[in-house]
Amino acid sequence: MSTEEVEAGHQEGPPWQIIGRFPTFDEADQRRLELKIEKDIQVKVHFQGSASNRYYAVKTRDDPRFALEEALNAKRAEKKRRKAKLNKKRRKK
Fold this sequence. Notes:
Layout: E1 17-22, H1 25-35, E2 41-50, E3 53-62, H2 64-92
Antiparallel strand pairs: 1-3, 2-3
């Protein structure tokens, strides 16, 4: 048997939203720690800005595992709704 390299493609998760901008890392880290208490959320501190205006941005997003689970639940609910509608039409005949 030959071994083949299987390359998993990168999947984009939910988008990051900027919650706040802070001039120092300590202030940004303090805000990150406050937000980190929530379970279904990811938080990061990102250094950004133009060369003359640098700042630390605190960014959050929904945890991709929970977002995927919610998307699957919505898809299942839609499928159940379509099946129920179809069964209702069949019963009328």
